[in-house]
Amino acid sequence: MRVTPLTVTALAAVLLLAGCDGDGGDSGDGGTGSGRKTTAAGPCALRALGVEVGPVDAAPAAGDLGNVTVTLTNRGDAPCTLQGFPDVTLAAGSTTAAVNAGEATAYRMSVPREGTVTFTIGYTRGAAGAERSLAVETVRFGLPGASETHEFPWSYGDVALRGGGVPEASVSPFLQSAGD
Fold first, then answer.
1. Is the residue at 28 inside a domain?
2. Residue ranges of the DUF4232 domain (predicted)?
3. For 101-131, what is each residue's pLDDT tens digit?
4. Does residue 33 form part of some domain?
5. Distance CA 179, CA 13 (A)
6. How far apart are the first and last CA of the chain?
C-alpha cells in the first residue's frame, strides 16, 4: 500500500483551492471582475457539523503507532470556513492532557454545504497501568477559537506520555478532499 505524506496531501488541497477566487476573475485594472458579488463564508460552528469517528488504525501494542480520523460534515445552510488545527484533549477521569498540533501547515478553507473535512489524531500506545501512560477514556475536541466542544469515547488503549504528562500524540490540520 502506498502512503502519501500528510504535507503533500495538504499542499495539493491548497493548490486546488488557490485556483478558485470565487469571483470569476479580476479585470486587472481595479475593475469589478465579473460583476458577481462575493460574500465570505463565516467560521464553522461545531453545532452545525456532523461528526463521525473513523476509520481507526488502532495501535495493537505498547510502543506501536495508531491513527484516529475524525470527519466533519457541514450540515449548516451555507458554506463556512475553517483555519488552523482542532483543539484536542485526552481525558482519563479527572486527568486531562492537550494534544499538540502536528508539524503540517494549516490553511484556511471553505467548507461547502454537505462538504467534509477531516483531521487525524496520531498517537503512540502506552503500556496499560504504566507510570508513563494515560488510560484515556474520552477525547474532547473543539474548533479553533471556539468554546463549544464535542466528546467521543476512546477505546484504542492507553496513550504513552513524555515527561511532564505530555501525550505522545499529535493532531493534523483540517484537510479537505479534492472533491469538496
1. no
2. 44-174
3. 878 888 899 999 999 999 999 999 999 989 9
4. no
5. 10
6. 25
